[in-house]
From TrEMBL, chain A:
Pfam families on file: PP-binding (PF00550)
One Gene Ontology term of the molecular function aspect: phosphopantetheine binding
Name assigned to this protein: Act minimal PKS acyl carrier protein
InterPro entries registered for this protein in UniProt: ACP-like_sf, PKS_PP-bd, PP-bd_ACP, Ppantetheine_attach_site
Biological-process GO terms, alphabetical: antibiotic biosynthetic process
Residues spanning the membrane: none
UniProtKB/TrEMBL annotation, chain B:
Lineage: Bacteria, Bacillati, Actinomycetota, Actinomycetes, Kitasatosporales
Domain Ketosynthase family 3 (KS3) per the UniProt entry, residue ranges: 2-397
Species of origin: Kitasatospora gansuensis
Keyword Acyltransferase: yes
One of the protein's GO biological processes: fatty acid biosynthetic process
Keywords tagged on the record: Acyltransferase, Transferase
Similarity section: Belongs to the thiolase-like superfamily. Beta-ketoacyl-ACP synthases family.
UniProt-recorded name of the protein: Act minimal PKS chain-length factor (CLF/KS beta)
Annotated CDD domains: CLF
GO molecular function: 3-oxoacyl-[acyl-carrier-protein] synthase activity
Record-listed E.C. numbers: 2.3.1.-
UniProt xrefs under Pfam families: ketoacyl-synt (PF00109), Ketoacyl-synt_C (PF02801)
Length: 87, 397
């Protein structure tokens, strides 16, 4: 079974777990915007990673969360896990 | 020489009023908020009444980002802080961030949030616990979130001494201002009316099991049988008198004296009162009204009444317990009493103690039923925390 993880999935999970940021927030082209500029801190990413793990049945390395500073980096990291699911 | 520390803003979230003005009007009208608990099904528990805050929608006041990471108590605290700052006409963004501190008291932290996360932990597993549980439950969370929201990085902290905490936090704020901090948000809001918190409150053995709101919380009454629990409290803006004067701020009054003691072989309440009066350099005859701790426990009422008679003489000072309208709010209760004392000084009126028939044997001049107009310059606020904490604070117009 192959799964995909899209920007819309990420936005939905960010909103569910951490609420909507102020300002322009999640609208517009945010793929390469730093999460800190969007309005999400490291804890919001930790919460998001936890929710992604739950929903997709994968385990993300802590480094993935720590290093992914933009939505694109986060999507790439999750997608890599989806192609090689954890045991 | 120690600098005078004054209060320039009040933020109130109380069961019988949201905002200082609403709360004060309700309190003078004798409007009690004690009623059947509705926040969860309390029918299986011995105590079924509470002072709940109703008609409050946090989303109307706070950004979406804060909702998933805050317990009810933190939302109430953030709003109380916003209102206190607005009342003081302080815009935190215009002040240096290290010149402002936040010192709150807490009795339980974010209980409801924790209950939900622990339920997730045991029923579904650790993956289902929110990352925000790492701090959302914590006693210091209200201080932390107020600090972050308002950019206040000066001396901050939390004190955990049950009901006494509401005064102890303000006292700690006074110390920090005397050391040079320009402004401190201080006080307490507590809220733990979830089923887990409710079980915890029962362990004190001091909750009233009455089912009629009008005879459930009756301090200094022969029918006293424990207290009703409530939620809410107050936050105050404290500044040095000099700083308040420099910005031409409205001043409610001064934190003139404070002391805290601990019960040992003898109850420590009287010592706390005497030391607070000494700290304020005031004689008992100069105190115009006492806001009692009002435990509504026969033994604790006796100790408090004996203290007041020993210090002020029989019927020597008017005594009131407006918390009969809200229930005991734990740390939030003492902070709310302090805010109430300033409102009383401002308006020259002592709010009533509702539903109580004062027992003659205590020898107290208890202000019951109706507010009593009085020339008020000085008030004494008392608070006792479960486990032996006593705090007394003297405020002066």
């Amino acid at each position: 079974m192959s799964q995909t993880f899209t920007l819309d999935d990420l936005k939905r999970i960010l909103l569910e777990g951490s609420g909507a940021p102020e300002g322009t927030g999640l609208s517009g082209d945010i793929l390469d915007t730093e999460f800190s500029d969007i309005g999400y801190d490291s804890l919001a990413l930790l919460e998001t990673a936890g929710r992604v793990e739950r929903e997709y049945g994968i385990e993300l390395d802590e480094a993935v969360v720590g290093d992914a500073s933009t939505p694109r980096a986060f999507l790439d990291a999750v997608s890599a896990h989806l192609m090689t699911p954890a045991a | 020489m120690t600098a005078s520390v004054v209060v320039t803003g009040l933020g109130v979230t109380a069961p019988n009023g949201l905002g200082a003005r609403d709360f004060w009007n309700a309190t003078l009208a004798g409007k009690s908020a004690i009623g059947p608990l509705t926040h969860f099904d309390a029918s299986p528990y011995p105590a079924k009444l509470a002072g709940e805050i109703t008609g409050f929608t946090a989303e109307d006041h706070l950004p979406s980002r804060l909702m998933p990471q805050t317990d009810r108590v933190t939302r109430l605290s953030l709003i109380a802080a916003d209102w206190a700052l607005a009342d003081a006409r302080v815009r935190p963004a215009e002040l240096p961030e290290f010149d402002m501190g936040v010192i709150t008291a807490s009795s339980a932290g974010g209980f409801e949030f924790s209950q939900r996360e622990l339920k997730n932990l045991w029923s579904q597993g650790g993956q289902y616990v929110s990352a925000y549980q790492s701090f959302a439950w914590f006693y210091a969370v209200n201080t932390g979130q107020i600090s972050i929201r308002n950019g206040m990085k000066g001396p901050s902290g939390v004190v955990v001494t049950d009901q006494s905490g509401g005064l102890d936090a303000v006292a700690q704020a006074r110390r920090q201002i005397r050391k040079g901090t320009r402004l401190v948000v201080a006080g307490a809001v507590d809220a733990l009316l979830c089923s887990w918190g409710w079980v915890g409150l029962h362990t004190s053995g001091r909750l009233s099991t009455a089912t009629e709101p009008t005879n459930a919380y009756l301090p200094f009454d022969d029918r006293a049988g424990g207290h009703v629990a409530g939620e809410g409290g107050a936050l105050l803006i404290l500044e040095s008198a000099e700083s308040a004067r420099a910005r031409d701020a409205k001043v409610y009054g001064e934190i003139a004296g404070y002391a805290a003691t601990f019960d040992g072989q003898e109850p420590g309440l009287r010592k706390a009162v005497e030391l607070a009066l000494a700290d304020a350099r005031l004689a008992p005859s100069e105190v115009d009204v006492v806001f009692a701790d009002a435990a509504a426990d026969p033994e604790l009422d006796r100790i408090e009444a004996e203290t007041l008679v020993a210090v002020f003489g029989e019927r020597g000072v008017p005594v009131t317990a407006p918390k009969t309208m809200t229930g005991r709010l734990y740390a939030g209760g003492a902070a709310l009493d302090l805010a109430t004392a300033f409102l009383a000084l401002e308006d020259g009126v002592i709010p009533p103690t509702v539903h109580v028939e004062a027992a003659e044997r205590f020898g107290l001049d208890l202000v019951v039923s109706q507010p009593r107009p009085a020339a008020l310059r000085t008030a004494l606020v008392l608070a006792r925390g479960h486990g032996g904490f006593n705090s007394a604070m003297v405020v002066r117009a």
